[in-house]
Design brief:
By secondary structure, the protein is mostly helical. Helices cover 53% and strands 9% of the residues. The two termini are 28 Å apart.
């Protein structure tokens, strides 16, 4: 599982630039090698939303296994850190239509 590469030149996007793109409102990524603009695919916006909201659906189960509020909060925090760390590897971009190639 790798961070996506540029569709034009094959240069791999930087992990940091994909993270910034996700947390800055799904901004497009510009390839630093060829200048091609890649935009966020809509289906991956749903993927990001589901990943972030997923613990809410398991709240009762997590409450049952967590002996205290501190452990409960630590489990959520750990999940969020893991989700944020994995997202750049899951997200895929497409080449923007009006690129000059």
């Amino acid at each position: 599982m790798k961070v996506q590469k540029c569709i034009n030149c094959g240069t791999q996007f930087r992990y940091k630039s994909v993270q910034k793109s996700i947390w800055a409102g799904y901004k497009p990524i510009i390839c630093f090698n060829c200048g091609a603009i890649h935009e966020f695919r809509f289906v991956y916006r749903l993927v990001v939303s589901v990943i972030i909201v997923l613990p809410i659906f398991f709240n009762q189960w997590i409450s049952d296994i967590a002996p205290s509020l501190l452990v409960h909060a630590a489990m959520y925090f750990g999940y969020l850190l893991a989700a944020i760390g994995v997202m750049p590897y899951l997200i895929r971009y497409r080449l923007k239509n009006n690129n000059l190639e």
